[in-house]
């Protein structure tokens, strides 16, 4: 069996065992064992992998399990041990490395993609539809009709007037389609997963006593 198929099966099994009920019954030692198992399987895959677009399944399954762990600790107000937090963060780093190797996405590429995305959103929030983009839908309620305000994008435009003005000029001068990399194929899902995983690792997504 290929390493990718074996790892997918193993991660599916780990995910099936890590239910909200089963995690309530785990003590700190069992949680460390769960995370160590995830870390070991992802690390083994990383060492033995061949370049393969199906790594997206590895990333998705790893992300699912890590999010389950975070949700358990946060919702149940259960602090993790430092050992568990360290294994958690190292596992996130391994998955981020897979994303970088197979999808060419890292923090620099994400920041660039996010900048383009929020600039396009700011244009639309100002009532300007970029070339070949769909005009924003309107929402209505009694006595009022208008566009839903994208406050984050408008805040970006207000705080970065030079960069935003330059972007508007470039879009207008080229009069060409500028895709939103965070919401268009082929890697929109990977950008989303990268952002979530990165936020889980810096700082650790699971609560640690004294932090």
Give the overall form.
elongated
As residue ranges, the low-confidence spans are: 138-146
Query: Whole-number average pLDDT?
Result: 86
How many distinct helices? 9
Share in β-strands: under 5%
Could you give the distance between the termini?
A: 43 Å
Described by strand count, sense and barrel closure, the largest sheet is: 2 strands, antiparallel
Sheet/helix structural class = mainly alpha
Helix-strand sequence:
HHHHHHEEHHH
Over all CA atoms, what is the radius of gyration? 21 Å
Q: Main sheet: which strands, in order across?
A: 1-2
Secondary structure: helix percent: 55-70%
Overall tally of structural domains? 2
How many beta strands in the DSSP annotation?
2
Polypeptide structure, described:
The protein is mainly α. It has 2 domains: 3-104 and 187-201; 108-174, no CATH class. The chain is built from 9 helices and 2 strands; from the N terminus they run H-H-H-H-H-H-E-E-H-H-H. It has helices at residues 3-17, 20-24, 28-48, 55-75, 82-103, 107-125, 151-159, 161-174, 188-201; strands at residues 138-141, 144-147. A two-stranded antiparallel sheet has the order 1-2. A hairpin with a 2-residue loop joins strand 1 and strand 2 (144-147). The longest helix is centred in the middle third of the chain and has 22 residues, at 82-103. 25% of the residues are buried. The model is unreliable at 138-146 (pLDDT under 50).
């Amino acid at each position: 069996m290929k390493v990718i198929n074996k790892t997918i099966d193993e991660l599916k099994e780990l995910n099936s065992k890590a239910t909200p009920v089963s995690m309530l019954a785990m003590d700190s030692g069992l949680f460390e064992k769960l995370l160590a198992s995830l870390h070991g399987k992802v690390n083994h895959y990383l060492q033995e992998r061949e370049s393969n677009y199906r790594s997206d399944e590895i990333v998705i399954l790893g992300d699912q399990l890590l999010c389950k762990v975070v949700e358990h600790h946060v919702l149940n107000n259960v602090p993790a041990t430092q050992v568990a937090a360290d294994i958690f963060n190292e596992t996130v780093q391994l998955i981020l490395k897979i994303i970088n190797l197979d999808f060419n996405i890292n923090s620099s590429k994400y920041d660039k993609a996010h900048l383009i995305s929020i600039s396009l959103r700011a244009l639309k929030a100002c009532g300007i539809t970029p070339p070949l983009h769909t005009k924003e839908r309107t929402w209505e309620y009694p006595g009022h009709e208008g566009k839903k305000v994208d406050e984050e994008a408008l805040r970006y435009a207000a705080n970065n007037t030079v960069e935003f003005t330059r972007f508007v000029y470039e879009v207008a001068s080229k009069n060409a389609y500028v895709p939103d990399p965070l919401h268009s194929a082929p890697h929109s899902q990977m950008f989303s997963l990268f952002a979530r995983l990165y936020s889980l690792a810096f700082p650790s997504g699971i609560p640690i006593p004294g932090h």
